[in-house]
Amino acid sequence: MFDSITGSIKNAVNKIRHKDDVASLKKAITELKKSLLKADVHHKTTKDLITAIELETKRLGIGQDSFLKALRNELSNVLTTQGNQGFVFSSTPPTTILMTGLQGSGKTTTTGKLANYLKLRKKKVLVAAADLQRLAAVEQLKQIAAQVEVDIYYDDNEKDPIKIALAAKEKATKELYDVLLIDTAGRLAIDEELMLQLENVRNAVSPDEIFYVADSLTGHDATKTATTFKEKIGIDGVILSKYDGDTKGGVAISIAHQVGVPLRFIGIGEKMPDLEVFIPDRIVSRLMGAGDIEGLAEKTSAVIDEKKAKAVTKKIKKGEFNFNDFLDQLSMMSKLGSMKSIIGMIPGLSGMSSQLKDMDLENSDEIKNIKALIGSMTPKERETPSLMNTSRKKRIAKGCGLSEVQINKILKQFKNASKMAKKLSSKGGMKGMQNMLN
Ligand code: GDP
């Protein structure tokens, strides 16, 4: 997801050769500035960021360690906008949310993803089809609602979105729904008519919050339109869609800094589970190429079994992650949404995500090989990865039809992943990250 920015950070860090070397810090800062601008970070944001990072690195004492620490802190500062994270429930249900955004931004899809997210958390959700602008929007929302198994309010004979929103709110209140998500009209570009309609819907239903869905792929435009929506109708949160396709990753940094509205969620794929709460520190970890164990565990626990996911995280932390867990994780992954987003969260594998553009989890050779390899192990070997030795590998190679080179490669990947994960989750997280970057 953030391949280019992650790679540039590594280059910048490597410019610092010696402790207290001011000239090399300058080089690192210049490199970082270039890469932030290239990653679509707004020039003002870039300037503020690098000034703060330079000062902080000097304050801590110039070195690779302090540069990384300063970078991490300042990125986190920029991404942490005053306000809420994730979803906030009103004390008087139904929590009513207006979903707004330009046409094609992913608003209707995101409405479905949010409904799915809430449903998985045992909430009673009603979605309302008040986007009467785009011809297929109502039909699309019907399909999505059926797919994620939530109720939908629509009225094919009604042309007034305000009436639809009001009727949906009445239904949601009467029938004790926890959450009402109202999909509103979009336009190809901002226009007065759209803003007026949104204002009217807002005034009619008094939503608890207004979410603005911004398309990451529109780069600087995403920041501009979010600002206009904020000024005209007032937005409480931004959901960044299509973050999976944004190899630059800088738009999140710009929106947080320039718009001044918290990023609440990010969309990371076309499927319904491909939505994540935006947590600044986690995004920073991923920007820096260090994976996101907590995010992975959280996603896992929502889709599958919370207890099991926690146990696996614990095992990773203790360095007891074994081949059975590995296999378990692989089979769970298909339920978790897009492969690329998952890989980006696994420490040690985040760099692989660019090679996985078209990876089909069920049919990829790599995954098949891993499954075949583990399938040829004895139960004891699966439980205890340290048992692997040359003679066992030879036997397994015969069993699964892979070469010893292939086996060694997979075993090394497994070992690296569990080592990185352990390092990162221990207290010396910074050190672990630096080692990884090096
Ligand atoms: P709307 O006009 O704003 O309601 O847009 P849609 O919800 O119809 O989405 C437009 C397109 O973007 C659809 O093809 C979606 O599948 C796609 N899309 C939405 N969110 C994401 C995302 O997070 N990642 C990717 N890759 N595609 C997305």
UniProtKB/TrEMBL annotation:
InterPro entries with a match to the protein in the record: AAA+_ATPase, P-loop_NTPase, Signal_recog_part_SRP54_M_sf, Signal_recog_particl_SRP54_hlx, Signal_recog_particle_SRP54_M, SRP, SRP/SRP_N, SRP54
Keywords: Cytoplasm, GTP-binding, Hydrolase, Nucleotide-binding, Ribonucleoprotein, RNA-binding, Signal recognition particle
Record's catalysed reaction(s): GTP + H2O = GDP + phosphate + H(+)
Top-tier EC class: hydrolase
Listed GO biological process terms: SRP-dependent cotranslational protein targeting to membrane
EC number, UniProt record: 3.6.5.4
Localization in the cell: Cytoplasm
GO MF term list: 7S RNA binding; GTP binding; GTPase activity
Gene Ontology cellular-component terms listed: signal recognition particle
One Pfam family in the UniProt entry: SRP54_N
The SRP54-type proteins GTP-binding domain, residue ranges: 262-275
NCBIfam families: ffh (TIGR00959)
Family from the record: Belongs to the GTP-binding SRP family. SRP54 subfamily.
Name of the protein in question: signal-recognition-particle GTPase
